[in-house]
Design brief:
This protein is of the alpha/beta class. It is 47% helix and 12% strand. The strands form two sheets. The chain has a four-stranded parallel β-sheet with strand order 5-4-6-7, with helices on both faces.
């Protein structure tokens, strides 16, 4: 019997659904019964993480901890979280539960090192970037982190908050050409990997048809790590 996965979700709902779908798609299973049991707390009461980190907004940790405790009480054997920025608070959550927690940024940095990546561009929220969340874990793995410039970062934040979190998923309404130009610029600056380090960005890149071999999706990395920790196998064809 597989271990039960607990997902702290709601950050946002689309990113939570994306993580669940990727776990399902990536699991080597031929029937319902061969899939992993998953508990999800899509807690939309969790305050905005970037607002808290950068602007003194309401602390999201109490709601994150409440979700973690609910999942633990419901029978989850370990926890994962469908938000990169929320990992800024992971130490405080881990202190309040007795079950393990898979750290998405750490798992992603380890994968990039194994792939031989020396320089990675971090596409993320302002909170994730300015907190140094990915910069630290990449540095620990010997990888140089580079970032979009100020104007590029404004556009990325618009895609995250002004489009995906608002449910605007129509390709015609997304800034496809502008995002493509940002990706090209980061590659010209030496990025061997584009790290889609906000869980809304893989959704956006898929809608804009921008995903290629240089794009690394931490959501998929987390899904693969969760499948293996549960005791199942990742389906052939997935590189995570």
């Amino acid at each position: 019997m597989y271990k039960i996965i607990g997902i702290i979700g709601g950050m946002g709902p689309a990113a939570t659904a994306d993580l669940l779908k990727k776990i399902t798609d990536m699991t080597d299973a031929a029937s319902d019964q061969e899939h992993i049991q998953i508990l999800i707390d899509s807690n939309t009461n969790i305050p905005d993480r970037t607002e808290a980190i950068l602007h003194g907004g309401k602390d999201p940790a109490p709601e994150l901890i409440a979700s973690a405790k609910r999942l633990e009480a419901a029978g989850a054997d370990f926890l994962i979280m469908s938000c990169n920025t929320a990992h800024y608070f992971i130490d405080r959550i881990e202190e309040q539960v007795r079950i393990p927690f898979i750290n998405m940024p750490v798992e992603t940095a380890r994968l990039l090192r194994k792939r031989g990546i020396k320089k990675a561009a971090v596409l993320a929220t302002d909170g994730t970037i300015q907190s140094g969340l990915y910069g630290k874990v990449l540095h620990d793995e010997g990888i140089e982190a580079i970032y979009p410039d100020e104007e590029q970062q404004k556009l990325i934040m618009s895609v995250i908050y002004g489009h995906i979190k608002k449910g605007i998923l129509d390709k015609e309404k997304l800034p496809c050409r502008e995002m493509e130009a940002i990706c090209d610029d980061l590659r010209k600056r030496g990025a061997g990997a584009l790290l889609l380090a906000c869980t809304e960005l893989p959704v956006a890149f898929d809608k804009m048809d921008l995903t290629d071999d240089t794009c690394f999706d931490p959501t998929s990395v987390l899904a693969g790590a969760a499948i293996r920790m549960a005791g199942a196998k990742v389906r052939t064809g997935w590189n995570y």
